[in-house]
Here is the input.
Amino acid sequence: MKIIRLFEDDMLEYEQEVIGKLGLDATIEVRVSQTEEEIIANARDADVVIAVYEPLTQRVLESLPNLKFVLYRSIGFNSVDLEYATKKNLPVSHLASYCIDEVANYVVAAILMHNRRLHDFNQSIKVDKKWDYQLFPDMRRLSSLTVGLIGFGNIPRLISERLRVFGCRVIAYDPFVDKEVFIQAGVEAVSLEEVFAESDYISCHLPLNEQTKELLDASLFGLATKAPVFINSSRGGVVKEDDLVVALSDGSLSYAILDVVSTEDPDLTTLPFMAMENVLLTPHIAFYSQEAFLHGVRENMKNIQAFLRKDYAHAGIVNLEGLSLNQ
Here is the structure.
């Protein structure tokens, strides 16, 4: 079995080590491919491809005759044409538990940093040369505030656990999660509109798909009554970016902490958030740690092992219900 990884990192030696430990009859090669043409040329002989953001369009999938399994080294899998993959009876797998600790910590760190205004005080001292403890008289105790989570999967559940010690109210929107899960977590299940109307901090954890694309727009930002802080560590495409800029400009939202924007490789000369003092940007690093990279490799290879064993329920396959696989 030939595995082709479509992106560059430093994990090849570890991947080969894990393949050996799991006893997989497989070889792995790195063939960096960013365009449809490059993927078609470089992965034509692949039985398995490993991707993150690379465009696995219908055209690409049609052109890879040996392809039996698609792996994502990420939680998100929005760059694949999932509908066509399912029609082609092609399993697409993702990492269910990858980097959830890191992203949860990023969000909690973002909330704490803003709540205590660490970045802004530092900027005031070092850039404006001001030593003024009263610079932000509206600072509030975190336990008096409400944090709203958009989505209540693995990552926001960890966030709610971490926030419990600070005593703040936590609410969440997720129509796909059973109410009992919210009750057990001590989190209030609310509508998406209520998240914006009631929260002081809002953290987005939506996957990007046709249903969520630009879902967060002016109609929701306009419901905010507390000028909340908006945090996005999921996918930039779930936000209508022009509307977010307006909401941050007119005070509907007071601040944004964005790990993602509308593209994965933005032009910083035209990105509107660059000139906004009430926006803090990081380059999609919420997932990042050495431990997360190692975890991702292990989970990828275990998904391959489960797939080869026909243990499809444990192979991380996101389109399993629509496939006809031999049991």
About this structure: The chain has twelve helices and twelve strands. The chain has two domains: 2-98+289-322, 100-281.
